[in-house]
Specification:
The complex is a heterodimer of chains A (about 325) and B (about 375).
Chain A (H helix, E strand, L loop, with lengths): L1 E3 L1 H15 L3 E5 L15 H5 L4 E3 L4 H13 L3 E5 L7 H11 L2 H4 L9 E6 L14 H6 L4 E3 L4 H13 L4 E6 L8 E3 L12 E4 L4 E5 L3 H11 L6 E5 L2 E3 L3 H11 L2 E8 L4 H13 L8 E5 L10 H4 L3 H13 L1
Parallel strand pairs in A: 2-3, 2-4, 5-7, 6-7, 10-11, 10-13, 13-14
Antiparallel strand pairs in A: 1-8, 6-12, 9-11
Helix pairs in contact in A: 1-7, 3-4, 8-12, 9-10
Chain B lengths: L11 E3 L10 H4 L5 H26 L17 H5 L5 E3 L5 H6 L5 H7 L25 H13 L6 E6 L6 H12 L4 E7 L2 E2 L2 E2 H4 L15 E6 L3 H18 L3 E6 L18 H8 L3 H11 L5 H24 L7 H4 L7 H12 L12 H4 L3
Parallel strand pairs in B: 1-7, 2-3, 3-4, 4-8, 7-8
Antiparallel strand pairs in B: 5-6
Classes of the chains: A alpha/beta (about 325), B alpha/beta (about 375).
The complex binds thiamine diphosphate (TPP) and magnesium ion (MG).
Magnesium ion binds next to strand 5 of chain B.
């Protein structure tokens, strides 16, 4: 066991998987000697050589498209896109090719790749370094979407993603890259994709969230009156997601608040709200609340905390839902 | 059928003012006049000071990430080759050209201070906001040039980008569009040898960046990017060619990033100190000053006066950038569309009333949330 940050936990998972499986190749911008702009791949090129940790030319479509080819030919590529804002040029490759090969070849060709992408706001970053596009990818069939919220989960989920036979986009919430440490076992372990985690048990109301906002939700829960007992669910995998866990919780509490950084309209919270009414209609005591980013361009950092669902706003959402 | 050569190409490299400040008189003919060199030297020096101050602002927590332009100020000469009606479509290491083309200096600071008003370019200044996504904005320059051509305006679009940017597909599409449609567009690649930590040798296997334009039918050349005379001449010739023949030019300005990639970077992790030292000697400021001194146009006294002036100007710029009132949080919403859809208005209103995007008239929940 070691007390690790999220960055270190990911680095450890990459190291161990690369030791165990020489089909794994890392490719991306500045991931070699520089160790990635967030140092997630620190030391890996020194350890595994320039053939397995590759600084590519500056081209996201090139990174994603060639990773797809590597995967089709039996390798296990782990491309890194430097920030979520630069997924744009890679989008066509990932969605129109990577996510479709299995289906269109009726299983003859598969694309087992894991795209790593830092995601989300809250670190005073420049434009296009703070977005939350997870719902876009969850909307596309054929690709799994993962977002850890703690170092322990980061390691177990990444190992599952790497071993998964299909494309996975693994979003790393940069706001919590180094926000806290957690005991992370040295041994390899997996956390199954598609399984949520109950962070705190409660009986009056369910919060469903994922990524960095898990921390803001915990902070919000501290602000609530003592007589409101909240169950906090960290979804961990956004697609396929653990509706059974949400259902069981909401059947118990009768109230549900979804929290995410992405814009409200067509955010993944909309999907959860729809499924909650589908599965828990007769158990609901209140409409499902959403506490989210707004339907606007993510503002530059002077206003980013007004945009993001911070603890006060989450607490308001919980109160509104509880008071209904 | 015998084999024959059906295509031959060469790339010229142009240097007019060498590292020691020595001028090639023949090549310099018809180029920059001494008054312009003086103006450029002063301007580049002010930009250098601006860069140093910006760095300190970041380090002291008064500004976010900032990409220093240090060492690449000679690109400012492009603006002297341009007319007001020309467009500049920049990346983020062209401060010197943008300021000369009319961009208020506080705009760039504001941008990096996390304020969109840094992108609110005054009317009549034909500059697009700096581009954060790499290598994707050159297509806009092609489109702007297209519009200029359709409207028969006597103006061109200059677009700037780095060596790394040439690896993006959009670069190639922009070159191809501009050349095929014969658009008055000038492509300027500032090859500063690095794309963050990735050296030029890992970016491309071709000998020059300039030759990448050959395949599209552009006029291509490499210039010493730290030589204001060469930058000016290349930009001026390219502009004339674009207007007269509708032929785009790709100019590779061979230069060097003297600073870290940005304030979030530490180039010592990947860059040889000796390489940096060698390039310090090729600093555009040093050689321009040497040229002026040799012509008796510069002195230590003038230098002192200039330094004081730079300080005064930049202090004022910082004051303006920092003095601006914080935007209200309405600003998050108000520029999303010309006319805001109802849902966005509702979200804005309910942000004020703390009623979570549902009903603005709903009572504020803030007090109870705090358990008061
Ligand atoms: C599409 C895209 N991919 C990646 C990045 C991250 N990034 C920012 S600057 C940079 C390197 C740019 O190198 P170059 O084009 O040579 O310009 P320079 O910074 O050297 O002036 C990278 C990879 C980005 N901003 N946009
Ligand atoms: Mg560069």
């Amino acid at each position: 066991m070691a007390n690790l940050t999220l960055v270190q936990a990911i680095n450890l998972a990459l190291t161990q998987e690369m030791e165990a499986d020489d089909r794994i190749v890392l490719l991306g911008e500045d991931i070699g000697l520089n160790g990635g702009v967030f140092r997630v791949t620190e030391g890996l090129q020194q350890r595994f050589g320039e053939d397995r940790v590759v600084d590519t030319p500056l081209a996201e479509s090139g990174i994603m498209g060639s990773a797809i080819g590597l995967a089709m030919a039996g390798m296990r590529p782990i491309p890194e896109i430097q920030f979520e804002g630069f997924l744009g040029p890679a989008y066509d490759q990932l969605i129109n090719h990577g996510a479709r090969y299995r289906t269109r070849s009726r299983g003859a060709i598969t694309v087992p790749l894991t795209v790593r992408v830092p995601v989300g706001g809250g670190i005073h970053a420049p434009e296009l370094h703070s977005d939350s596009p997870e719902a876009i990818y969850a909307h596309h069939p054929g690709i799994k979407v993962v977002m850890p919220a703690s170092p322990y989960d980061a390691k177990g989920l990444l190992i599952s993603a790497i071993r998964d036979p299909d494309p996975v986009i693994y979003f790393e919430p940069k706001r919590i890259y180094r926000a806290f440490r957690e005991e992370v076992p040295e041994d390899e372990y997996t956390i199954p994709l598609g399984k949520a985690k109950i962070v705190e048990e409660g009986s009056d109301l369910t919060i469903v969230t994922w990524g960095a906002p898990v921390l803001q939700c915990l902070e919000a829960m501290d602000k609530l009156p003592d007589d409101i007992s909240v169950e906090l669910i960290d979804l961990r995998t956004i697609y396929p997601y653990d509706m059974d866990c949400i259902e069981e919780s909401v059947r118990k509490t009768g109230r549900c608040v979804v929290v995410h950084e992405a814009p409200k309209t067509s955010g993944f919270g909309a999907e959860i709200a729809a499924m909650v009414q589908e599965r828990c209609f007769l158990h609901l005591e209140a409409p499902v609340q959403r506490v989210t980013g707004y339907d606007t361009i993510m503002p530059y950092y002077k206003l980013e905390l007004d945009y993001l669902p911070e603890a006060d706003r989450i607490a308001e959402g919980v109160m509104a839902c509880a008071a209904y | 059928m015998p084999t024959k050569v059906i295509y031959n190409a060469k790339i010229n490299q142009i240097q007019i003012l060498d590292e020691n400040g020595k001028l090639d008189e023949k090549l310099a003919r018809g180029g920059l006049k001494d008054a312009q060199v003086l103006k450029l030297y002063e301007h580049m020096s002010i930009c250098r000071h601006y860069d140093e101050v910006a760095f300190k602002l970041q380090r002291s927590g008064r500004m976010g990430t900032y990409p220093q332009n240090m060492g690449q100020e000679a690109i400012g000469a492009v603006a002297l080759a341009a007319i007001r009606a020309d467009w500049m479509v920049p990346c983020y290491r062209e401060n010197a050209a943008l300021f000369l083309h009319g961009l208020p200096m506080e705009k760039i600071l504001l941008h990096w201070m996390g304020d969109e008003r840094g992108n609110q370019i005054p009317e009549g200044v034909n500059i697009t906001p700096i581009s954060i996504p790499i290598g994707t904005h050159m297509l806009h320059a092609a489109g702007i040039a297209w519009a200029l051509k359709l409207r028969k305006e006597d103006a061109v679009a200059f677009t700037f980008f780095g060596d790394g940017a040439t690896s993006e597909g959009d670069f190639h599409e922009a070159m191809n569009f501009a050349c095929t449609l014969k658009l008055p567009c000038v492509f300027i690649c500032q090859n500063n040898q690095w794309a963050i930590s990735v050296p030029r040798s890992k970016q491309t296997a071709s000998e020059t960046f300039a030759q990448k334009g050959l395949a599209y039918g552009a006029e291509c050349l490499q210039i010493d990017g730290n030589d204001v005379f060469a930058v000016y001449k290349a930009a001026k010739d390219a502009r004339a060619r674009a207007l007269k023949d509708g032929k785009p030019t790709l100019i590779e300005a061979y230069t060097y990033r003297l600073g870290d990639h940005t304030t979030a970077d530490d180039a010592r992790r990947y860059r040889d100190a000796k390489e940096l030292e060698m390039w310090r000697l090729r600093d555009p400021l040093i050689r321009t000053r040497k040229y002026l001194e040799a012509k008796d146009l510069w002195s230590d006294d003038k230098q002192k006066t200039l330094e004081a002036k730079a300080k005064e100007i930049v202090t004022k710029v910082v004051k303006n950038a920092e003095g601006i009132e914080k935007p209200t949080n309405d600003d998050i919403f108000d520029h999303t569309f010309a006319e805001l859809p109802e849902e966005i208005i509702r979200q804005r209103d309910t942000m004020h009333t703390h009623s979570l995007g549902q009903r603005p008239e709903q009572e504020t929940l803030r007090a109870s949330a705090r358990g008061v």
